[in-house]
Every structure is written in structure tokens, then in C-alpha cells.
Amino acid sequence: MAELITVARPYAEAVYSLATEQHATQQWSESLSWLAAMVKNPDLEAVITNPKHTAQELEALMLDVLGARGNEDVKRFLAALIENSRLTLLPQIAEQFEVFKAQAEGVVDAVVETAFAMNDAQKAELTDTLSKKYGKSVRIDVRDNPDLIGGVRVLVGDDVIDASVRGKLQAMAVSLKN
């Protein structure tokens, strides 16, 4: 997965730069989200990855499905991805674009894995704590993960804050081996 993100990042950077110049980050965000969803569709994915289809056929199909959701720049971007056999990278490109957009807006996304469901007060407290730690507004995505046994694991970009029982048990096992 990291390799796909590495290949997708330059495309996302280029699109984000263009979107910023055009003052159209929200429009690009919506177009990329739609395109990424299209590529993830199993029926369309089967067509995209089938080598018997030409670039022109893929472009016609994608533009037909995209319809009026994309402007001329989006259509040119789509054509460039098809020409370079990078169409399957659209989900990663869209994801990286959203990361750049959030950074520019001073927002950090955090994935919070919990052993047990969190109530609204706990979510608000954690959001406030993370906002203070990172000095930015934080959006959290809470996911249940009973494998943690107890506690939470927070992923913010490359940072991992593991306050789970499983994480503490693994750390203790490692320290006992040494």
C-alpha cells in the first residue's frame, strides 16, 4: 500500500497545486472522490484492468460515467492517468489530495481505534486533547477494534499513540525478552 501512495503522491501534489491556483479545491475534491469511487466499483475495475481495452475506450467510458461532474481540467487529468496506466491509483490520489487540503486548512485527521464504543463526551475530550497536542483542529474517525482488549490506539499521520491493553502487553513482552 505504501508503494501505491508513493506513486500517487506526485499526481496528488500536481492536482492540489492546480486546484489551489484555480481556487477550486472543493470542486476537485468532489471530482476526485467521485472518480475514486468509480475505480473501486468491481464492474468498472474489471474493465479498467482488462488489457484488451484501449486507452481511448477507457477514456470514453470514464468520461461517460463522469458526465458533468468534471470540468475540462479534470477530463485532461483523467486522460493523463489513462495514458500513463495509472487509473487504478485514483483512490490513493484522492486520499493524498484530501491530506494536502486538510493540511492547508489547518486540520488533522485522526483514526481512533477503541476496544469499546466511545460516547460523545469521550470523543469531544479526545478531540480537544489531540487538538492541543498537534496545535490544529482535529477530525476523528472512531472505529471499534475489540482486539485491543481495552484502551485506544490513535493514528495521526505517521504518529501512533498506543494506549491499548494489547499494546502495553506487547511492549511488556518485548521488554521481558531483552
From TrEMBL:
Membrane topology qualifier: Peripheral membrane protein
Pfam families: OSCP (PF00213)
Keywords, ordered alphabetically: ATP synthesis, Cell membrane, CF(1), Hydrogen ion transport, Ion transport, Membrane, Transport
InterPro entries from the UniProt entry: ATP_synth_OSCP/delta_N_sf, ATPase_OSCP/dsu
Subcellular location: Cell membrane; Membrane
Gene3D superfamilies: N-terminal domain of the delta subunit of the F1F0-ATP synthase
Superkingdom as given in the UniProt entry: Bacteria
Family, similarity comment: Belongs to the ATPase delta chain family.
General function of this protein: This protein is part of the stalk that links CF(0) to CF(1). It either transmits conformational changes from CF(0) to CF(1) or is implicated in proton conduction. F(1)F(0) ATP synthase produces ATP from ADP in the presence of a proton or sodium gradient. F-type ATPases consist of two structural domains, F(1) containing the extramembraneous catalytic core and F(0) containing the membrane proton channel, linked together by a central stalk and a peripheral stalk. During catalysis, ATP synthesis in the catalytic domain of F(1) is coupled via a rotary mechanism of the central stalk subunits to proton translocation.
Name of this protein: ATP synthase subunit delta
Gene from which the chain derives: atpH
